[in-house]
């Protein structure tokens, strides 16, 4: 493995040249994590300076009415900030690389929808997307905007503060939820849940199969902005490794896959992807 670290331009240039040599001969799949969206104002769970927090588990959400309300109230406050985030240079460059035939698809662990908004067409959102909501009883799906409008109408007292502590899953911190009216399905009255994989849930097998196909059909794999702590990311890395595909990892700090990478660049995701795209597009 070639590992490029340090802030000096020389080392960065050598790392990019090495990654270019690995990727320029064919197509590559891309697996992205929270580090790709930090430049869009969405914080990372595990990066340097990330706030310590305990995300709600699916068991808490389903079995505890107070937790259910607390999640929806915090998620609603965070949604306005989450939805206002714009794709950054990394998102846009991946869309351009797909359009020009270098990238065969993007698999993302993020739930922000920014890859699609940036123009990427073949995207598998492993952990779902915050812009969709579904009923846990009848399966009806709703657009998040419509649910947000209903929450505003049912909870006129819930004013959004000027500064909300936003978390990577679109949630925000809130203290009291006693008065909060959680949204219910307008079809059957059942409880609603954002279309995201909570802690304690598994990635749907069909969705993981789609992600595995993207990785398997590519000549190489790029992993950007992920520490690979989540098992699904490591499984995709292993799929590429077993098929003898070169692996390029771009991430600030160590990842669980560094020892298996062909090239590791210890650097920010968006600026590195932009610089790499400049070399590939010539």
Overview features:
9 helices, about 280 residues, disordered N terminus, 7-stranded parallel sheet, about 15% strand, elongated, alpha/beta, 3-stranded antiparallel sheet, 10 strands
Detailed description of the structure:
- With 282 residues, the chain is an alpha/beta fold.
- The chain has helices at residues 9-23, 58-63, 65-84, 89-99, 114-118, 144-154, 205-217, 231-242, 269-281; strands at residues 2-4, 28-32, 103-108, 123-125, 128-135, 141-143, 192-196, 220-224, 247-250, 263-265.
- The two termini are 26 Å apart.
- The radius of gyration is 20 Å and the shape is elongated.
- Strands 1-10-9-8-2-3-4 form a seven-stranded parallel β-sheet, sandwiched between helices.
Structural class: alpha/beta
CA-to-CA gap between the ends? 26 Å
- Mean pLDDT equals 87
What is the molecular shape?
A: elongated
Q: In which range does the helix fraction lie?
A: 25-40%
Question: Main β-sheet: number of strands, strand sense, barrel status?
Answer: 7 strands, parallel
Oligomerization state: single chain
Order of helices and strands: EHEHHHEHEEEHEHEHEEH
Q: Uncertain segments of ≥5 residues (pLDDT<50)?
A: 3-11, 47-51
Number of helices: 9
Number of strands: 10
């Amino acid at each position: 493995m070639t590992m490029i670290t340090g802030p000096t331009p020389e080392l960065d240039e050598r790392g990019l040249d090495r990654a270019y040599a690995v990727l320029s001969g064919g197509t590559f799949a891309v697996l992205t994590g929270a580090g790709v969206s930090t430049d869009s104002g969405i914080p990372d769970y595990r990066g340097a300076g990330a706030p310590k927090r305990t995300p709600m588990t699916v068991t808490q959400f389903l079995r505890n009415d107070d937790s259910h309300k607390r999640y929806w109230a915090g998620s609603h406050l965070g949604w306005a900030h989450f939805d206002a985030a714009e794709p950054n240079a990394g998102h846009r460059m991946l869309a351009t690389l797909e359009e020009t035939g270098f990238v065969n698809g993007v698999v993302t662990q993020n739930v922000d929808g920014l890859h699609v908004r940036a123009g990427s067409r073949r995207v598998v959102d492993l952990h779902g997307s915050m812009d969709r909501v579904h009923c846990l009883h009848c399966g009806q799906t709703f657009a998040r905007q419509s649910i947000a409008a209903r929450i505003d109408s049912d909870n006129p007292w819930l004013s959004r503060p000027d500064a909300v502590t936003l978390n990577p899953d679109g949630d925000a911190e809130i203290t009291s939820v006693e008065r909060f009216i959680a949204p219910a399905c307008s079809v059957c009255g059942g409880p609603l849940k954002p279309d995201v994989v909570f802690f304690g849930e598994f990635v749907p097998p069909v969705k993981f199969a789609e992600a595995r196909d993207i990785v398997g059909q590519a000549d190489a794999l790029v992993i950007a902005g992920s520490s690979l702590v989540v098992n699904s990311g490591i499984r995709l890395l292993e799929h590429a490794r077993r098929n003898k595909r070169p692996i390029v990892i771009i991430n600030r700090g160590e990842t669980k896959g560094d020892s298996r990478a062909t090239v590791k660049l210890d650097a920010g995701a968006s600026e590195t992807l932009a610089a790499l795209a400049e070399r590939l597009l010539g």
